[in-house]
From TrEMBL:
This is TPPC9 protein. Residues 16-125 form the Trs120/TRAPPC9 fourth Ig-like domain. Pfam families: Ig_TRAPPC9-Trs120_4th. The gene is Trappc9_1. The lineage of its organism: Eukaryota, Metazoa, Chordata, Craniata, Vertebrata. InterPro entries: Ig_TRAPPC9_Trs120_4th (IPR058568), Trs120_TRAPPC9 (IPR013935). It comes from the Eukaryota. One of its GO terms (cellular component) is trans-Golgi network.
């Protein structure tokens, strides 16, 4: 589950926010399997989609994180969840997307790390209303 500014997000919803206001972000990982999973690392990567196949991830002048964009999640037991809380600050107007990935953070494995990518979240940063 993904919540941006308290609103549940899916791939069909555009969340609007105001430039200069911190935007709360919540990502919840629920373990529906019969076995414990983890450890994981959760990474949030903002980007702009230029609609021509190019994604711009070089946004350090347009978006900043309040805190870190990577969080480490220990083992999640069956039917339990782990929740990440963070915030983004948009410095300019525009349409932005969040690429949210979970990946295994177990260095003792000999197999390649597996990734679970959630659908991108679409956020529209707008000028503050006067």
């Amino acid at each position: 589950d993904i919540l941006v500014d308290g609103k549940v997000c899916d791939c069909d919803i555009v969340v609007t926010c105001q430039v200069g206001d911190p935007v709360p972000l919540q990502v919840k990982l629920t373990n529906w399997s019969k076995h414990s999973v983890g450890p994981f690392a959760l990474t949030v990567m903002p980007y702009q989609d230029y609609q021509n196949g190019v994604h711009n991830y070089d946004l350090q002048d347009a978006i900043t994180f309040v805190g870190s964009n990577t969080f480490y999640i220990d083992t999640v037991k069956p039917t339990k969840d782990s929740v990440y809380f963070g915030a983004l600050l948009f410095l300019y107007t525009g349409d932005f997307y969040l690429n949210i990935k979970f990946h295994e953070d177990n260095c003792s494995r000999e197999l390649p790390l597996s990734w679970l990518c959630l659908p991108s979240v679409h956020i529209r940063a707008m000028e503050p209303v006067a």
